[in-house]
Amino acid sequence: MFNATEFPSEDYYDYIIVGGGTAGCPLAATLSQSFRVLLLERGGIAYGNPNLMNQEGFLAAITDVDTYDSPAQAFTSEEGIPNARGRVLGGSSAINAGFYSRADKEFFRNSGVNWDLRIVNRSYEWVEKMVVFRPEVKSWQSAVRDGLLEAGVEPYNGYSLDHLNGTKIGGSTFDISGRRHSAADLLTYAKASNIRVAVHASVERVLLASTAANFGLPRQSAIGVVYRDQNGWYHHAMVREYGEVIVSAGAIGSPQLLLLSGIGPRPYLSYWGIPVVHHQPFVGQFLFDNPRNGISFVPRVPLEHSLIQVVGITDSGAYIEAASNVLPFLSPVRSIFIGAPSSPIYLTVATLMEKIAGPLSSGSLRLASTDIRVNPIVRFNYFANPIDLERCINGTRKIADVLRSRSMDDFKFREWFGGGNFWVVGPALPSDLSDTAQVAAFCRRTVSTIWHYHGGCVIGRVVDRAFRVMGVNSLRVVDGSVFNVSPGTNPQATLMMLGRSVIVNHS
After folding, report:
1. Could you tell me the residue ranges of all domains in the chain?
2. Which listed residue (278, 452, 454, 506) is catalytic?
3. Is residue 452 annotated as part of the catalytic site, yes or no?
């Protein structure tokens, strides 16, 4: 691994992978067993950064952002919802809450990929040997587990990495000492003599050229990339004959890079003055984000710090999760779960939240600049489909059932649920949960992100079932941008598996 400033102005590889994130790192490690691989990461490294490497630093890492250099790159959707994307080796697996759970069976049936489930399971196991641990479940997470069961989210499945209806404890990418393990750790599997990793390497565009195809007809092919280092110098990385460029820059970065490379809707690219290499009308379309709603409150007893460990997988289209954080309320850090109060004290804040599964509401992405470092403009259109709103209403009522459970008696202030809102941090639940209009208004008013956005280069519209960009040779997209649904309760397990399995299954 080197800073991009140390790389030559031009070099040749069998595979060039753009994005050292959740899918890109395992992909590079796998390809390096047989090929010469270059992995290009626009950010730096997490190792040595305490906010990234320890779970106590999670809130600080995801909220301490700047325009060009922070490990978390902030962006705000057109709806006004704050969000963040990883800009560090390991990608969003290096800044997230660490919850690990495999995809649901419906995902494998409906994602548009011809999965070989034997390879899928072996790839999951390959990931899990390196980065997954059984969490130590303490008071708050235990109470949530018991409250979910009392609220009817059954059966209890114990500790499991599988997606199972009911309540379970999932895996964690934080080990027992609280140290983070991310997709970057999977580079340990790489064949060192065959791989080079460049950090602080911002890929400006994919280079494409016209080549002969079947029956002598010309066809565009990826021949390399142009990237810029920290000093502003440009480098060319080129692929050898029969090599490939693989874009793994995520649901925001991958469609953005294709557009800037001249792959997208012809009229739109012409408007921006970008030479059209291949007309592809669906780049940046069908972009999804799973809505998150919930409640945060100050419990009557202090709690330990905990990120996501327990999940309730309901049959009504919502996943119930929880966290607890010790927050310095005069800190400049703004909680991602709550608004930042002004009291000069440290308090434990307990959070119950829901993730709306499989949103049907889709949005789109468009350029804000021709500078790859500038976030594109994103709209998710939360709750545009009434089914998504119905799922949120059901999940909100289930959160209320958990809060009413006996397991919560030791934690919540009794006057809180009776309508007194002094101890609620942020919006309180509706006073009449039987009033669907009230609950729907709560869902719309409190909607936020759970950082599981996906789409933009969807299978069957931008890429084929082997992840090849349709109409362009030697170019694939391998990351969450190809999916029209987020796998399971958390996508990181499946994205790491994807990076391992995709070449084996679709070479």
Report:
1. 1-135+179-282+454-507, 136-169+291-357+383-446
2. 452
3. yes
